[in-house]
Amino acid sequence: MFNYDQYLRLNKFPLIWCSGCGDGIVLKSMLRAIHKLGINKDEMCMVSGIGCSSRLTGYVDFNTLHTTHGRALTFATGIKMANPKLHVVVVTGDGDATAIGGNHYIHAARRNIDITVILFNNFIYGMTGGQVSPTTPKGKRASTAPYGNFENAFNISGLAQAAGASYVARATVYNAVQLEKYIQRAIEKKGFSLVEVLSPCPTAYGRRNREGTPVDMILHQKENSIPVSKAESMTPEELEGKIITGVLVDTERPECRTEYQRLIDHLKEEK
Amino acid sequence: MSFRYEIRLSGEGGQGLVLAGKILAEAAAVYDELNATQSQSYGPEARGGASRSEVIISDEDIDYPKAVNIDLLLALTQESCDRYHSDLKKDGIILVDSEAVTRVPEGSFRVIKVPIIQLAREKAGRALVANIVALGLIAGISRIVSEKSLLTAIEARVPKGTEELNLKAFAVGLREAQAIMK
Amino acid sequence: MQEEKNIRVLTGNEACAEGALAAGMRFYAGYPITPSSEVAEVLAVELPKIGGVFIQMEDEIASIGAIIGGSLAGVKSMTATSGPGFSLMQENIGFAAMAEVPCVIVNVMRGGPSTGLPTLPAQGDVMQARWGTHGDHPIIALAPFSVAETFALTVRAFNLSEKYRTPVILLLDEIIGHVNEKVNMPDTTALEIIDRIPPAVAPDKYLPYEHTECGVPPMASFGQGYRFHVTGLAHDETGFPTNSGREIGRLIERLHRKIEQNRDDIVEVDAFMMDDAETALVSFGSTARSARHAVRLAREAGKKVGLLRLKTLWPFADKEIRAYAGQIKNWVVAEMNLGQMAHEVEWALAGAAPVKRLNKVDGDPISPAEILQALPE
């Protein structure tokens, strides 16, 4: 049995997350990944914004920073630029990262700054009671989309990829083994890395959209996941409603803080 | 006896008047041990290309850094001359580019007409250094800042590689001023 | 040249950048905006030369977020902006106040509201500096009136910020930001530099929001082994969110107490020819230059006029103004806004003597002549 307690602030338990929420599976996968990497807790800095998933920073025994809505990446950028020795992980949600924080999200990816984003995508604003988010699928209901969402949804992994991220992977909480592996690889990656994890919200999303029990929602992930290698040979019609999982980007690009250090070193030599 | 000397350099954007003002202020403040401020204004009144840079030189603290009672006005264009001469002192000096400024405002001030841009082009070598030719003229006319300080300030401030050209421009302006003031 | 002296001609924006470097600032994040951009331009050149970091962010919200992050990582951090960008920063200024993160926010004021007058001076952000964020928290705001003082007050802004674990706002205006002026550069090795107090206890005993007697808790940096939690939520001494009314009240009261009980250390006023004055001008920033000029002219004409120049705008210098309440028969408050500071002066004097307002919001500075005219006969 993996000893999670060594990374948790157990005196802050119980968690605020609802029973059946997928976020706990992400938390545990993340802790196993960090353990495998052998990262010293003092060198891990975890930054979050506002929302259910962003409450995670209160429960883990690292340097933790719970910021304002949408701005976690800006604080994280400051931390990484000021002290590049720290491993910086941002924990955020679909609304936090791609609605209010959308501009910071694309610019952090463009800079390719060495920050890992674990993006909990539950298709909804859970904490505030189930309002529509940029990833709510078209037609699905939310408290502010009472007749079904009439807008198009973001492909948020695609967004990070297009903006210049070095590593992008999509996973589900159903496949926690795969999720752990992706998080491990993302933290190892020198550059901007994103793990988008689909984490069901039975309370605010599932109930309203008649998606069944929490177990039903996780089984739905299992039945509808298509590995990226297989998806490549499928038509858009065949992929309708499917979840493409796997590593979407894994490449080497110059990293923001490393490039700045090169400048500092170069100017020092010139003296 | 304390003094406050106000200079307004006017013309159009790109003529290097902000740089000229800064050189003048630096010569006075750093090398002549006086006090000096330089400010410029942009905004609505700078539309149409008229631009201005103001230098106040004093042996006391300079509280108000804007020109209100001008001792010397430089005008390199007609528009700037029309626009910026109103705050000139009664016995102030108005130094104009004689080719660009054909209508000189009437008043009790002294008007000095010099083909500044032409001198820059023909005697110094490039029209671009008209601002420094003008500095030479201002140095010779006002005698408010020492020649030596201005030469040092010019060398320190102009882009590397253009020092010789600019020092030559200054000499051209200064010589012209000496001829005028004789 | 004078011996041993380092005399330079600088703009206020340049002096602000130099002052920040002298104070030990090594992380700058900002977004370009007139009339503040020269602060960023100087630091983009200088910071990497000394191992510091400059980054241009995607907007002002990102800029203030980044400097709070930089400061939590243990590096003195700063951003500079003007009115519209300052408005965008407000939410995270509140965060810095709540989470007690030292940082300096420079606002080179221009005419507003909205895009307003990008290239022209104003002093319309006095109240935004004080009340721009939601909720109740104190703030420190300083306003220099010369280029030399901009250098000094930038250093002071960092010192107060570190000493009291609070964001400090430095309010310049377009005139101070852009005027070139003589500065006798101080010996930077002789400057008083204050750094945040590190914890004196082991990590398991550390309370990042401890209710200390002076009101200021010691501050660890991320990466030093303390593994503490920082949040904008109301929190207890451990730094974790709390719903206890008692703990929330204690926190907000301490945030006020740490500034209020140290206000004498923070508030600075320059009294010019006030000893025998019967009429007093109150002003700050570039307008105080016109006011000082007007005082000199009035004195030449035999009028007993003085100037109280506020170097610290917040906390407000009510006590310092009230000290003259029995002496001064007429007060005149000159500012490039429609009476933001006059209101505070009136409140401080509580009717002790008439307060006349001299206001201007057309992008043109208030001239010494206009102030002279406004003085009572």
- Major sheet characteristics of chain B: 6 strands, mixed
Q: What string, H for helix and E for strand, traces the elements of chain B in order?
A: EHEEEHEEHHHH
Largest interface: A-C, 40 and 45 residues
CATH fourth-tier homologous superfamily of chain B = Pyruvate-ferredoxin oxidoreductase, PFOR, domain III
Find the CATH topology of chain B.
Answer: Pyruvate-ferredoxin Oxidoreductase, domain 3
CATH class of chain A: Alpha Beta
Class by alpha and beta content of chain B: alpha/beta
Per DSSP E runs of 2 or more residues, the count of β-strands of chain A stands at 10
Work out the strand percent of chain B.
25-35%
Strand content of chain A: 15-25%
- Provide the helix percentage of chain A: 25-40%
Helix content of chain B: 40-55%
The overall number of domains of chain B is 1
- In round numbers, the mean pLDDT of chain A is 97
pLDDT < 50 stretches of chain B: 43-47
Strand runs of chain B, count: 6
CATH H-tier superfamily of chain A: Thiamin diphosphate (ThDP)-binding fold, Pyr/PP domains
State the end-to-end distance of chain B: 26 Å
Examine the coordinates and then state which fold CATH places here, giving the name of the CATH topology of chain A.
Rossmann fold
SS element count, helices of chain A: 11
Describe the structure.
The complex is a heterotrimer of chains A (about 270), B (about 180) and C (about 375). Chain A has helices at about 25-35, 70-80, 95-100, 100-110, 155-165, 175-190, 200-205, 215-225, 230, 235-240, 255-270; strands at about 45-50, 65, 85-95, 115-120, 125, 130, 165-170, 195-200, 225, 245-250. The longest helix of chain A is centred in the N-terminal third of the chain and has 15 residues, at about 25-35. Chain A has about 270 residues and is of the alpha/beta class. With about 180 residues, chain B is an alpha/beta fold. Chain B has a single domain, classed as Pyruvate-ferredoxin oxidoreductase, PFOR, domain III (Pyruvate-ferredoxin Oxidoreductase, domain 3, 3-Layer(aba) Sandwich), CATH 3.40.920.10. Chain B has helices at about 15-30, 80-85, 115-125, 130-140, 145-155, 165-180; strands at about 5-10, 35-40, 50-60, 70-75, 90-95, 110-115. A six-stranded mixed β-sheet of chain B has the order 2-3-1-4-5-6, sandwiched between helices. In chain B, helix 1 (about 15-30) packs across helix 5 (about 145-155). Chain C has helices at about 10-25, 35-45, 60-70, 85-100, 125-130, 145-165, 175-180, 245-260, 265, 285-300, 320, 340-350, 370-375; strands at about 5-10, 25-30, 55, 75-80, 105-110, 115-120, 140, 165-175, 180-185, 230, 270, 280-285, 305-310, 310-315, 330-335, 355-360. The model of chain C has no long low-confidence stretch (mean pLDDT about 95). In chain C, helix 1 crosses helix 2 (about 35-45) and helix 3 runs parallel beside helix 4 (about 85-100). The longest helix of chain C has 18 residues, at about 145-165. With about 375 residues, chain C is of the alpha/beta class. Classes of the chains: A alpha/beta (about 270), B alpha/beta (about 180), C alpha/beta (about 375). Chains in contact: A-C, B-C. The interface between A and C is large, with 40 and 45 residues.
